């Protein structure tokens, strides 16, 4: 799949079943629940759907805290669609929405997406021990554009 065949659109409640399927595929027991996904949408955070052929192949979300700070909530791309630049497109959309804010995120210490984040200027600033539950995996805290 070529990224030029993917379009980004606002993530809406109609996408939630597909989001939950991707969550389960990628994150197993640590997948977000329906309530978690819907509450993110209800809060009005910036969530985008990556669509290809009318199908949700990925999604991403950004929570804007204030005029100076925003946090990437999630970037997820179906396993079969990974490696084609979709995660990059989603990240670029979130960064554009963040503007000149400092952007933070947490990423599992074994997640290869760390390389993508580093290419976009994110730096490791800390570790959250046993952040992911129930696995107990640690998370790296990464920031971009910090003062």
Number of strands: 7
* Total count of domains: 1
Q: What is the terminal-to-terminal distance?
A: 38 Å
Taking all Cα atoms into account, the compactness measure Rg is: 15 Å
Judging by the overall fold, what is the CATH architecture?
3-Layer(aba) Sandwich
Q: And the CATH topology?
A: Aminopeptidase
**Helical proportion?**
25-40%
Unreliable stretches (pLDDT < 50, length at least 5) are: none
**Element-by-element helix/strand order:** EHHEEEHEHEE
Query: What characteristic shape results from the CA principal axes?
Result: globular
Estimate what percentage of residues fall within beta strands.
Answer: 25-35%
Structural class: alpha+beta
Oligomer: single chain
Largest sheet: 7 strands, mixed
Strand order of the largest sheet: 1-2-3-4-5-7-6
Description:
This protein is an alpha+beta fold and 147 residues long. It has 4 helices and 7 strands. It has a 7-stranded mixed β-sheet, sandwiched between helices. The termini are far apart. 27% of the residues are buried.
Defining traits:
single chain; 147 residues; alpha+beta; Aminopeptidase; 33% strand
Describe, in short, the structure shown.
It is built from four helices and seven strands, in the order βααβββαβαββ. The chain has helices at about 15-25, 35-40, 85-100, 115-120, and strands at about 5-10, 45-50, 55-65, 70-75, 100-110, 125-130, 140-145.
